[in-house]
Write a structure and sequence with these properties.
Helix content of chain B: 40-55%
Largest interface: A-B, 55 and 67 residues
Number of strands of chain B: 6
CATH superfamily of chain B: MTH777-like
CATH class of chain B: Alpha Beta
Strand content of chain B: 5-15%
Distance between the termini of chain A: 15 Å
Strand content of chain A: under 5%
Number of domains of chain B: 1
Order of helices and strands of chain A: HHHHHHHH
Number of helices of chain A: 8
Radius of gyration of chain A: 26 Å
Order of helices and strands of chain B: HHHEHEHEHHEHEHEHH
CATH architecture of chain B: 3-Layer(aba) Sandwich
Shape of chain A: extended
Radius of gyration of chain B: 22 Å
Number of strands of chain A: 0
Distance between the termini of chain B: 16 Å
Oligomer: heterodimer
Structural class of chain A: mainly alpha
Strand order of the largest sheet of chain B: 3-2-1-4-5-6
């Protein structure tokens, strides 16, 4: 029963939501809307669960003095502090000079920007040390990467301004993006969509049970 | 030729060069001439084609990590929509994005007010803020926007706002402008809303995700596409603006050239090593 009941709920809800796609009658659409609202609420609860999980995992790591435990202290302290400030300021968190907005603009925003900015430096280093052309396929990939990388920025066209317009880097880059890239991407998208449909059906029919856990 | 020194080059030199190539043009712009690609022209044309006073849904799905690529098209698209006298409903499906989106929209609205335009919150634009639920929110909005967002970002009751009295569901919108940095974003809006509710849409996305959306552009599911900062800069050029994307293009151009050089030099070192008999 412990396994059969979740499988039955999944099958019934899954089939019902599929039906709501094709039947606009209120007998179907009203409960379908309600279920969609439930889904939004469940996702919101996921954040609470995530926060609780982050606390549990990191507090136990601190208690056991695992490697890098001082960083976990910082994580837990900032998590608790941010939540406490959010609760204290409530709906007025976006007013001028609130601590929430200070944390968002001066800490969260700056740190995220810094993380992404660092990518440029590491990409340069990786391009120099790791992008090795050892096979024909790798050569084609490197050639396409170089053309697209230079063709996507205005300097690419300036560097090849002496060539006829269709042979300039911007035009060649456009062709790569619109023809070979598009063909491959479309094939991947269609394959992925078929895979999603097959997985959805397997879940609804109870063939795919990995989401229940227990390695079944 | 002995390129051993290049092979043993300390990577901090690479970091230094990238830093100089990025910072230099940002501090002293050179102004590499910009072109305008077809997807960018289509993006602008899709907004130009809207009748005056149309209601447009603008979903800004990003967070501060995507600020350099996402904020410039948000500003430019909002300006174009306001100048077209369209009314804009803004949403955000990214947890960390609503603060940045609100600040971006509000500062752009203030800029327009300073130029003498009559832009009023609640009448001309509404920021509905963030809602958890990813694709579920997109589908839920199809059953009623106020149903999915009972309050706006400023905790006003959605139904009490003058603009929202004319908004029921997706059928109330003439266009969806999606500014997308990843998941959930353009792909999900195409799959859940464009295909199901037939709402025409344009997208401004990060450069890294642009190739994924070319099939949607070619099939007509996307009416226009701005790929990364380059797309945003071309859009600014078409609109006759000189915004943050245009200023960033010099830095991006030089960084791309340097990274291309790194790939070439890395392989030259490898080939010269292979030619030396052991």
């Amino acid at each position: 029963m412990k396994r059969e009941l979740p499988l039955l709920i999944t099958a019934v809800i899954g089939l019902f939501m599929l039906l709501s796609f094709y039947v606009p009658h209120h007998i179907v659409s009203v409960p379908a809307d309600y279920l969609q609202q439930c889904a939004v609420i469940v996702v919101a609860f996921g954040y609470v669960l995530g926060g609780a999980n982050a606390l549990t995992v990191n507090l136990s790591a601190i208690a056991r003095r695992q490697p890098d435990w001082p960083y976990k202290v910082v994580l837990v302290a900032t998590l608790v502090f941010t939540v406490a400030i959010g609760l204290k300021e409530g709906r007025h968190w976006q007013d001028e000079r609130t601590i929430s907005m200070f944390l968002y603009n001066q800490v969260y925003s700056s740190m995220q920007g810094t993380m992404f900015a660092l990518l440029a430096f590491f990409i340069a280093s990786a391009a120099f040390r790791a992008f090795r052309v050892r096979t024909l396929e790798a050569g084609l990939l490197a050639a396409a990467a170089l053309i697209v990388m230079l063709g996507r920025v205005p300097i690419g066209d300036q560097m090849t301004a002496w060539l006829p317009a269709p042979l300039r880097l911007g035009a060649v880059q456009d062709w790569i993006m619109n023809v070979p890239q598009n063909a491959a991407k479309r094939a991947i998208l269609m394959g992925a969509a078929l895979g999603v449909m097959a997985t959805g059906l397997r879940v609804i029919l109870g063939i795919e049970r990995s989401y229940l856990g227990g390695g079944d | 030729m002995n390129l051993d020194w290049l092979e043993k080059l300390d990577r901090r030199w690479l970091f230094l060069i990238v830093g100089v190539l990025t910072m230099g043009p940002l501090l002293k712009p050179i102004g590499v001439p910009l072109g305008s690609s077809k997807p960018v022209q289509q993006f602008k044309a899709a907004i130009d084609a809207l009748p005056e006073h149309s209601i447009v849904l603008m979903s800004c799905d990003y967070d501060p990590g995507g600020k350099p690529e996402m904020v410039p098209p948000t500003r430019t698209a909002f300006r174009q929509l306001m100048e077209k006298h369209c009314r804009v409903v803004i949403t955000c499906l990214w947890t960390g994005g609503s603060g940045l989106v609100d600040e971006t929209i509000e500062s752009t609205a203030n800029e327009l007010r300073a130029k003498g335009m009559d832009v009023v919150y609640g009448r001309d634009y509404v920021d509905l803020g963030y809602k958890a639920g990813y694709e579920a929110v997109m589908v839920l909005m199809g059953k009623g926007i106020a149903n999915a967002f009972p309050q706006d970002q400023r905790a006003n009751r959605t139904a009490s706002l003058p603009l929202m009295r004319d908004v029921r569901d997706y059928s109330s919108f003439a266009l969806l402008v999606n500014i997308s940095a990843g998941y959930p974003g353009t792909k999900e809006w195409v799959q859940q809303v464009n295909s199901r509710f037939h709402l025409p849409m344009v997208s401004a996305c990060t450069a890294v995700s642009a190739p994924e959306f070319y099939p949607y552009l070619q099939s007509g599911q996307l009416k226009g596409l701005l790929g990364g900062m380059a797309g945003a800069a071309e859009y600014e050029k078409l609109r006759g603006e000189k915004g943050a994307a245009t200023r960033g293009m010099d830095a991006q151009s030089f960084s791309h050239v340097f990274i291309a050089l790194c790939i070439v030099m890395g392989n030259v070192v490898q080939w010269t090593k292979r030619k030396v008999p052991r």
